[in-house]
Design goal:
CATH topology: UDP-N-acetylmuramoyl-L-alanine:D-glutamate ligase
Order of helices and strands: EEEEEHEHEEEEEHEHHEHHEEEHHHE
Number of strands: 17
CATH class: Alpha Beta
């Protein structure tokens, strides 16, 4: 019996730090864009190669927090796939449900870091998902997968219901693009939903304030709604109370994996029988630690690491709103 099984695609991230670019928020009324010279050579200040992917980030983070952890993922039968497998094993993540695809390569992403924010170019190989339905776990964390994942959605819904597994759900790019209707079977049985404010707007439409987002998402089915909003911090609703928490005052080196780290800390706290306000503190500490490092996993904390982080950096406790 595992404490948590992470479900989703893994990837190799190539992270590029650049300075020769501009941010333009006037071209489109609803979003800003990063601009570089067309048909030019753009200098790169530094680059790093890291194991990543939402599921891998959660699995590594959960294992560091002392949870018995496994991952269901499909890798290419190549050098990158082997590198990911060995990295996960070194982090004490079970590879019992790790599968190799003999026909397609391992996923890859390129992360452009500029002025403390990241823009990600994502490649997901098409996969034929077949969830190990006999896998036993207390929690499952379902996150970013490739397009054409409807079958996996149905498998997870049946597996969770049959085995009374608590589901944490953090939809990725292709899940959000598939639309709310495709996610509803999972949302109805979801214990904790993790999205940022922009993702919440994609799911339920633009709302006047964060409370309306929380209420609209909770109405669909998840028991606990967690919305992160960058510098504004995090917001949670459990059907009874609303909480909000600001961020720790720490350096921001690179933001890849910040949301995964928050969700990982939050879910681990619940598994250690912590209340929601403390789960928010765990999530925020884990997230703040991650953005102080390059890549999504170097800053992931242990249980003692979270305690030490709280002592070192002052923070405001979650409050009701």
């Amino acid at each position: 019996m595992f404490d948590i099984i992470s479900i989703g695609d893994c990837t190799i991230d190539t992270l590029l730090q650049i300075h020769d670019a501009e941010i333009n928020c006037k071209l489109h009324p609803d979003r800003c864009v990063i601009c570089v010279n067309f048909a030019d050579k753009i200098p790169v200040d530094s680059f790093h190669r890291k194991v990543a992917g939402n599921a891998a980030n959660n699995a590594v983070g959960s294992a560091r927090l002392g949870l018995k952890t496994a991952i269901y993922t499909i890798l290419g039968n190549d050098g990158n796939g082997e590198f990911i497998k060995e990295t996960l094993k070194k982090e004490n993540v079970s590879d019992e449900y790790l599968i190799y695809d003999p026909k397609k390569e391992t996923n890859a992403s390129v992360v452009i870091n500029f002025q403390g924010e990241r823009t990600i170019f994502v490649y997901h190989a098409k996969r034929d998902y077949a969830l190990p339905m006999k896998a036993q776990t207390k929690w499952a964390y379902y996150t970013s997968v490739a397009a054409h994942h409807d079958g996996l959605n149905n498998q997870i819904a049946k597996w969770v219901a049959k085995n009374k597994i608590k589901l944490g759900y953090n939809p990725g790019t292709f899940q959000l693009r598939a639309g709310l209707a495709k996610m509803k079977p999972l949302l109805k049985i979801c214990e904790a939903l993790f999205v940022n404010k922009e993702e919440a707007a994609r799911m339920v439409g633009a709302q006047h304030d964060i409370r309306r987002y929380l209420l609209a998402l909770h109405k669909i089915g998840p028991k606990i709604i967690i919305i992160t909003d960058g510098q504004a911090g995090s917001f949670v609703f459990d059907g009874d109370k609303f909480w909000q928490m600001g961020i720790f005052d720490t350096p921001n080196i690179e933001r890849t994996g910040a949301g995964d780290a928050f969700a990982t800390g939050f879910l681990a706290a619940l598994q250690y029988s912590k209340k929601i306000p403390m789960a928010m503190c765990w999530g925020s500490a884990n997230s703040s630690s991650v953005i102080m490092k390059i890549g999504p996993q170097d800053g992931l904390l242990s249980k003692k690491g979270i305690e030490d982080f709280h002592k070192k950096y002052k923070h405001k406790c979650p409050t009701n709103f």
